[in-house]
Amino acid sequence: MVKKNNLKNLGFAFPVGSPHVSRTMMLAELGILLEFVADPQAPQKDYIHAVVQDNCLGKRTAKNRLISKRYLVELYSLDPNLALFRALLFFWQRDQGGHPLLALLCVYARDTLLRASAKYILPLTEGSLVTRESMELFLDN
After folding, report:
1. pLDDT higher for 12 or 69?
2. Cα–Cα distance between 75 and 97 in angstroms, integer?
3. C-alpha angle with apex 123: 121 to 128, nearest 5 degrees?
C-alpha cells in the first residue's frame, strides 16, 4: 500500500474539508490563470501574485481574490515542485480539448470529497438527479 506521505510529496492531498462544499473545480479560472502565467517554470508565488495582486481573474474585491487563490491552491496546488501540478501543466499545453478531464484528474487527487463521492456519481447516467439527502446518505455509509 502506498503511504499518504509519499502521495503528498507528489501533490496528492487529504484535507478534512473540501472546496467542493462551496465551489466547483474552477475550470475557467484555472484556464485564465495558466494563460496569464505562461512560464511553466514559474514558482507558486507567481500564480498567487497573478490572482491576488494582478487580479488576472477579474474579481471585484480583494476578499474574492484571496478566496479564489485559496481554492485554486487547494484544488491544483499551483506548485511546480509537485509532480501532479507539473503533469497538469505538461498536458494542459498539449491538449486543449482535454482541459476539463485534466483538471478533474488533478482535483480528484487533491479533493477528499470528490474522491469519496465518485463511487456514487460515476454509475449515474448523464442528467440524473442527485439530491443532497441521497449524497449525504451515501457519504455517511
Report:
1. 69
2. 20
3. 65
